[in-house]
Amino acid sequence: MNNAFNQTKEKSLKTFMINIAIALVGVAFVGFGIAFNSAAMLGNDAVAILYDGVRNICGLPMDSLGVVTNVVNYGIIVIAFLLNRRYINIGTFIYTIPMGTFVGIGSKIYEALNFPLILEFKILSSVVGCLMLFIGLGIFIAIDIGLDPFTALAMILKDKINSQYKTAKIICDLSSLAIGFTLGGKAGVVTVMAALFGGPIIQFVSEAVKKSILIHIKVQKQHFEYKK
């Protein structure tokens, strides 16, 4: 009986670690996407514009964006924790802790590619950046191990104003956009692309990951429990 219990525990731990690994892949894509969009200078999504604005007002170079991303995210976590700590969990830290590093790596990759500073390559970089950003968010959402800092903040706002999540999300996005743009963050074509295509692509990726990867993990787990 103890052996069966230990096997079940090991299987659950293995599944949990696989979920974390997949979530980190998603976070990496998000970080790379933010880096590519920022480097292309054609705008970014609302949250990344806030990162870029803080970087700009501090007079830091583009390769410091990863550090700034971490600082802003940690600040949001502190605010969310003080307002309603129940929305802060392990997923929040899995998303936040490595994010700055992935943004920094993405910036280095962009530099190594040495794209010509012409509009065509900036557009290409932005398209690739948006796709990586949306794919990464879709993967992280599909794993369902917790909320990123800004989603946690939106959930807290939803509770405070007694509204739907989408209303609170719009308020948070507009606030991030306004603050980031005021601080010197770059808004542009990518900002519009993120607003128009972000939701559908993220939802598509999230559902695809659930059907193709997560269902396989669950089937394996159920098969093990049945055999036991």
Keywords:
globular, single chain, mainly alpha, 228 residues
Characterise this structure.
Keywords: Membrane, Transmembrane, Transmembrane helix. This is YitT family protein. This protein has 228 residues and is mainly α. The protein has one domain (46-221). It is built from nine helices and no strands. The protein has helices at 2-40, 46-57, 65-84, 90-96, 99-113, 119-143, 149-161, 165-182, 189-227. 41% of the residues are buried.
The radius of gyration is 19 Å
| Strand elements, count | 0
Number of H- or I-type helical stretches: 9
Give the amount of beta strand, in percent: under 5%
Largest sheet: none
Helix content: over 70%
- The helix-and-strand class reads mainly alpha
End-to-end Cα distance, whole Å, is 10 Å
Average of the residue pLDDT scores: 84
User: How many structural domains can be distinguished in the coordinates?
Assistant: 1
Q: Characterize the overall form.
A: globular
Reading the helices and strands in chain order gives: HHHHHHHHH
Parts with pLDDT < 50 across at least 5 consecutive residues:
219-228
Protein name: YitT family protein
Pfam families: DUF6198 (PF19700)
InterPro entries: YczE/YyaS-like (IPR038750)
Transmembrane segments: 16-36, 64-83, 90-110, 122-147
